[in-house]
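Now for one protein, fold included:
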Amino acid sequence: MDTMQFKTNIKCSGCIAAVTPALNEAAGKDNWEVDLQSADKILTVTAATTEGEKIKEAIEKAGYKAEQVA
């Protein structure tokens, strides 16, 4: 399994609800989480065959920003 992290502007549970369909499609259900307590609002994705660019595009399509950090 690969683990990727993205700095995002996802700030609340409402934002998470907005990106959930796109992230579930791109990464798979239960393969991602956003740390809302982190100052950088880090999204961590753990999936076997997911490309970072695909995740970034899914987040941006939902109206948010993402920058891969790891």
